[in-house]
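User: Predict Oxidoreductase's structure from this.
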Amino acid sequence: MLKAGVLGAGHLGKIHLRLLKESNKFELIGFYDADAKNAKAVETEFGYKYFNNIDALIDAVDVVDIVTPTLSHYECAKQAIKKGKHIFIEKPITNTVEEAETIRTLVAEHGVKGQVGHVERFNPAFTAVKDKIDNPMFIETHRLAEFNPRGTDVPVVLDLMIHDIDIILSVVNSPVKHISASGVSVVSETPDIANARIEFKNGCVANLTASRISLKNMRKTRFFQKDAYISVDFLEKKCEVVKMKDAPEHPGDFDMILQNAEGVKKQIYFDNPEVEGNNAILDELETFAEAINNDSKPIVTLHDGTEALRVATMIINQF
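Assistant:
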């Protein structure tokens, strides 16, 4: 079992602590939090060992799980990597692209592995259909959330939209050609609602909307490709695949047939895969353990995290 330590014991950090404790791939050694009062409260309530020195915790583990505020990701990761430790780092990978590039260089120099916590890659609704997504040419995403003061220290693009940016970059095999975007600050000092249009060199267009001042929560993405429409509901963990094929010569009474202006007939049918329940955060942590143990490539690499941040930064710079 890999010895793991967590940096940061806030809302998400406590979830990571619990899951690492339950996992059979990790041995949870303890945690460090800069807020000593909060750290001692967590230690008292849950029994996790609190290290009052960040270096002492890093020295005691094989894997450092970084769940601190984004501004401190870079320094925490740098300290861990220079001590030869593998790093799991929450999204966004760092505060700037330059920091992310440095982290990637350090990981290569020290021969350790890194993974970024883009948890929606492990959402069962997405994993159920990702193999069916083939060269999509139009993608539309809506990620809407009710207002929550937690996370408003960063623009909604880094708080919410970056999830969808990462998903899109993982399925569109083409460089970004052009980005246009707009954002509005309503209750925060940074934009609370944003829309972005990403054009790729292969002709694919992605239209993304993110809001943290909505009256209801929504996390939906729709992929349109040749002869197929794929819908993923990340919140409800549901998916739908609608496909078209050449219509049979003698269609059945209940077959859905469309005929275009040229007289070509297509049959519409549903190919909905089964969505198996999982804990996405546990899956991302345990697949990272497998990548370390098997010396294989993590599912969400530091490169992936860097590119998601790069596109997010390009969007923010349009505001």
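The mean pLDDT is 95.
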